[in-house]
Amino acid sequence: MTGFSAEIIEKAKPIRLLIMDVDGVLSDGRLFFTDQGEEIKAFSSRDGLGLVAIQRYGIELAIITGRYSSLLEQRARQLGIKHLFQGQDNKIVAYKQLIDKLKLGDAQACYIGDDWNDLAVMSQVGLSATVADGEPEVRKRVDWISSRNGGRGAVRELCHLIMQAQGSEQLWLAECLDTGPLGTRQRPG
After folding, report:
1. pLDDT tens digits for 14-23?
2. SS3 category, 85
3. Where are the domains of the chain?
4. Distance CA 180, CA 187 (A)
5. Which of 93, 152, 168, 174 could serve as 57's disulfide partner, Cβ 3.0–4.6 Å?
6. How far apart are CA 15 and CA 162, in angstroms?
7. Cα–Cα nearest to 15, from 129, 130, 125
8. Record: fold of 6-183
């Protein structure tokens, strides 16, 4: 993956923590409910593979979302995301707790969101990002905009950006191309 500006590559070099919103970022923002009232969301498997890979190269993952969903707890477990903050009306409070807990500076954090309730955190982090279909006011205020919509690979694209900036993207590709015993592919995660 290429096409990232030198300025964005520089902002991504110190990143140690990737924080994500959910609705409109990890999912497409639409909410489906069963007759029993259970929530259903669709997540991109490509985003998932990127998140599993980026953790292998030292990046911590976190989710800060305004809603609560047991489905999200399950997805976070599947991806190895240890820091999950749900039901956060004021996301900056959770952000500050997380930064303090991990002993990181703002310049080491990246946040991807899509709506106005993400702006406070976006204004603090070293690299702020949004999806192609993020709110216009959000797109005006971030460092980087994905070419992909929420729930459609935007997070994967951000993973590529961070990994490229830190020199791990080609390592991951080499691992994916490597064949092991009897010609079986050895994949990360």
Report:
1. 999 999 999 9
2. strand
3. 6-183
4. 10
5. 168
6. 7
7. 125
8. Rossmann fold (3.40.50)
